[in-house]
Amino acid sequence: MDLKKLGWNLFFSACFEEFQAKNLAPARISAVHRNAYEVFTEFGEFPALITGKMIYAAGDNSELPAVGDWVAAECRPEEGQAIIRAVLPRKGKMSRKIAGEKASDEQVIAANVDIIFIVTSLNEEFSERRIERYVAAAYEAAAKPVIILNKSDLCADIEATGETIKKVAPGVDFHVTSAISGTGTAAIGKHLGEGVTAVFTGSSGVGKSTIINELAGREIFAVREISDFDDRGKHTTTHRQMVLLQGGGIVIDTPGMREFHMGSAGEGLREAFSEIEEFSQKCRFRDCTHDSEPGCAIIKAIEEGKISQERYDSYLKLQREIRSFNIRHDYQMKKAEQRKWKSIAKTMRHFKKPRP
Ligand code: GDP
Ligand code: ZN
Question: How wide is the angle at C-alpha 24 spanned by C-alphas 20 and 30, nearest 5°?
Answer without folding.
Answer: 120
